[in-house]
## 1
Amino acid sequence: MSKYLLRLDDASDYMDVEKWQRMENLLDKYGIKPLVGIIPDNKDASLIYNYKQDLTFWTKVLSWKNKGWELALHGCYHKYTTKEGGINPVNKRSEFAGVSLDEQRKMIRHGIDILKQYGIVTNVFFAPSHTFDKNTLIALKEESNIRIISDTIANDVYFENDFYFIPEQSGRVRNLPFKLCTFCYHPNTMSDKDFENLEIFLKKYYFKFVAVKEIELKKRSKSLFDKLLHFMYFVKR
Ligand SMILES: [Zn+2]
């Protein structure tokens, strides 16, 4: 049986608090514990000029943590500075891919420090626009205890370059034949229809959803099937 993980992107002190509350209510109703990407020092103009600063944000994050939600470091400033796709070229823009190792180390250190300031320790990372490179992994290794990456196309969790990769294959809920499938949502930009479709799916399949803590992290190498999936996704699209 496939297992599902729900991932929520772009939580920060500049977000659509009503939509995030709607998401929280929905997930509470079905007992789903998502993985939430926290932008530590949001400088993304599309977010900070669109939403009023939520001064209760960090308290909210701690309440999510107490509920068993998994928190991830989601970039540093959430600002794109390159047009690189890196090793998971879902988009041709990045905050990390193509940036020098030294700069990447500084960004990771800064992000970790801010989370720490609010009492948050995490071992999961995912980059804005899904894009990062080998130097991002080195920077994470040198500057943090993070050893889990949410992203890349594969059938199941795999272990590579000292990191566990939890694959992320879809931007909406649907039945996919993967052993572990992550659905990635951006609550800030979700429509009523998106919320309704998500609820229809959760009502039917809530029991297939797991929290990050329930995922077995095996030191499995990428299989031929994983490589084929990656190839089909990036080369054939
Ligand atoms: Zn993001």
## 2
Amino acid sequence: MFSGTQEIEKNLIKICAEEIFKAEHGQYDGYVASGGTEANIEAIWIYRNYFVEKEDADLSEICIISSEDTHYSIHKASNLLNISNVVVQVNEYHQISIPELERNVSKAIHDGKKYFIVVLNMSTTMFGSVDDINAVTNYFNLLHLNYKLHIDAAYGGFIYPFTNNESNFNFKNPDVSSVSIDGHKMLQAPYGTGILLIRKNYMPFVCNDNATYVNGKDYTLVGSRSGANAICMWMILHAHGSEGWTKKMRELTDKTSDFCAALSEMEVEYYRNPYLNIVAIKSKYVSAELAKKFVLVPDTHEGQPQWYKVVVMPHVHHNALSQFINELALELQ
Ligand SMILES: Cc1ncc(COP(=O)(O)O)c(C=O)c1O
């Protein structure tokens, strides 16, 4: 059934795995999931089962390691899969703090944890911050810990690899086991367009043998999926081409840099990763009215926000940015 659509999905996975995330030909699996949440949960589900089946692990010996700025889908995974989540504080750059990581992992080992599912952010939701992957993997490798590394690139997956040539959040890096990316964020595809990419021979750990009426087995969390989502992402990527998309993403980061330069000139404090299009501004500089007018996203909807974020998408015109800067300047005066 739908073999043409399946070919398109396979080609889409190939483009994402081989061209964007530098996997070797045929050395990966993947599928179009309902979103970043599902792709993250699926990866953690796979590693949990891997540790149980391959290492005879008890669930109490497995834990997730993630930062306090990690997306809440990781907490969902922890709850659903019945494995604990060790939440590590971030440093001033909103990256997982290495001293805090060392402290938390030592404690987890002391508490009997032997198997680690590490989730790093190739861009957090609120700050666009990217974890220091080398520092984290060096630590785990030095201690010869048994771990699998999943990259949550739900936000950054369709921008960071195009703006940072030096990125090692990809399958050339032997420590990376899987990546989740979302088409319905930077790619502006309709909702339902997450992707999980994972090294070969891991998907079988969640294979459902009971789906006897299905021709072909089910390895997904969601079950039935719309093929239109794969077609849609495939179309968007082909419409732009790799050079076209790179140019578009670099224009976005340039536009974001101009915006940041204007904020710096006004001595407004903000956080921004230069390869991303998110700017998190300290809330003390922005009135609630201005934030509402420009639809800025607060870090919390409960109580007083600490940060407001601006996401410079293609439709965010220079005029809109300068209008915000002018109104902010008036407020600050
Ligand atoms: C970093 C990150 N991970 C995961 C998700 C979850 O993605 P979705 O809403 O597609 O399930 C998001 C959504 O904002 C995200 O920013």
